[in-house]
Amino acid sequence: MFLYQAAPGIPYYAIRFSDIAPEFIMGGSCIVCRRCGPIDRARVEARWGKESFLRRVDRKLHCLGCGNPYENRFTVVGKALTPADFPSGSKASGAAVGVAGAPLPQGIMVEDVGDADNAVRAAGLAAS
C-alpha cells in the first residue's frame, strides 16, 4: 500500500497527517536497507500536530535495522480492518494487518531531537 492510495491526488511534499484517514496504519521506510515498520501515529501527531507535513517530520526517522538517519520516508503499512471487511458471522474484528495480510514488522524509529523524557517506544518506533 502506498501513500498516494491513502491521500489520492496529493504529492508527498504536500501531505499532512490529517490528509490520511485514521484507518490507515502509517509506517516508515528506510531508503538504504528497505526495512519498513509501523509508527505510533497518535504519539507522532501529538508531538508534531495533525496539520504537520509528513516531509517535515520524516527528517526525524531513522532505521532501527541499519541505523540510517537520512532520506527515510513515511509510508502506509496496512489498514485497520472493520467488521464490514468480514463476511457475516465472522468473529474477527478490529484487527490490523500489514501488506498482503502479513504481521506488521518493526523497524523505523522517529528520532528524539530534544528532551529524552519525551521519547516513547511503541510498535518498534519511538516518537519524541
Characterize the largest beta sheet: strand count, sense, and whether it forms a barrel.
4 strands, antiparallel
Order of neighbouring strands in the sheet with most strands:
2-1-4-5
Radius of gyration: 15 Å
For the terminal residues, how far apart are their CA atoms? 26 Å
Our count of helices gives: 3
Number of strands: 8
Poorly predicted tracts of residues: 93-105, 111-128
How large is the share of residues in beta strands? 25-35%
Class inferred from helices and paired strands: alpha+beta
Percent helix range: 10-25%
Query: Secondary-structure element order, as H and E?
Result: HEEHHEEEEEE
Question: Mean pLDDT, nearest integer?
Answer: 74
Shape: globular
